[in-house]
User: Fold this.
Amino acid sequence: MPAYFRKEEIIHDGKRYRKYNDYLTIGGSFFNSSLRSAGQQGVGLDFHFHIRRQYFQTGIAISGNKFLENNHTQIRFGYGYRKETVSYNLAFFGGPTFFTGVYGLPDTAGTYKPEFYQGIGAYVCAQAVKKFAYDIGIGAEVFAEINYKQSVVGIKLLLFFSGAYRGVKRNYNPNVRSESKK
Assistant:
């Protein structure tokens, strides 16, 4: 494996892009929960960053019976693997989550009493993104969360935004190690 070079760039379509870059994903999800009988919908935001060649994920998601309703909130931190090319981005992450939520329990009067819960669980995901430009794309993520209160499995449709763009190709580019092939 070649030595790590933090500022390494590639050239694609006459523009310079950083090889080791951070990215942001945002999207809506649909999933099933072992706690609730109806399917859930959610919104999530994740920041993916690197330390040398190691990739990490940190993010937040809220979910409910409809989009932007909130009966479950999850904060996550993960470690993962990323494979990036000019046309796609693949990534796999896993790690701990902190969650909090509320569940309605029926009482004897026929109304619902809220039961609040929180704890620590585990989260895994696999992302596939098709890029429109080197640093913008659209994709999907399959994910699962397991904790003492519920198990969740679902899919998230996401937008991908990378911080790879470094400017227009110049005559001399000291950080460029390779030019991408089409």
In short: The domain at 18-174 is CATH 2.40.160.20 (Porin).
